[in-house]
Amino acid sequence: MIDSASVKNDLNSVANMVYSTLLSLPKPVYVLFVANKSDLFTALPVGKVRELLEREITSIKKTRDDSMDEDEERNVLGGDDFNFDELDDEKVHVEWTRGSIESREVAGILEWIATRIS
User: Fold this and answer.
1) Residue 118 and residue 115: Cα distance in Å, rounded?
2) Phi, psi of 29, rounded to the nearest 5 degrees
């Protein structure tokens, strides 16, 4: 769950957490990212949240690669330019929805859960 109203303020830390989490998950795995607080005027649309994270994760990956020795094993996901869609090839299936827990806008979350358990 990502706070779509404040993600820009904490973009680097959110992107680091998302990328590190994705790296550590057992595969295959299905992941739902929820742009929470989508009911707020200051909230970014789901597509914009995703785009910002992809751009920031690309930057994080480049920084990590530049700081590694040639002999170190690289634990990476995606190509040079990170894109959540490319993770399907690595058995990390990512989907996105919007919602608001406080306003009880959870239809996208419930639909995703229903497709996974049926």
Assistant:
1) 6
2) -150, 150
* pLDDT (tens digit per residue) in 54-84: 999 999 998 876 665 555 445 678 888 999 9
Distance CA 8, CA 43 (A): 10
Where does 6-118 have alpha helices with state H?
Answer: 11-24, 46-66, 107-117
Give the number of C-alpha atoms closer than 13 A to the C-alpha of residue 26, restricted to the C-beta side: 0
* Whole-structure pTM value: 0.88
Flag whether pLDDT at 31 surpasses 90: yes
* Residue 50 three-state SS: helix
Provide the pLDDT for residue 79: 80
Residue with tokens 């990512």: 94
Q: How many helices (H) and strands (E) does the chain have?
A: 3, 3
**Ordered structural domains, the chain, with CATH:** 2-117 (3.40.50.300)
Q: How much is the pLDDT for 70?
A: 56
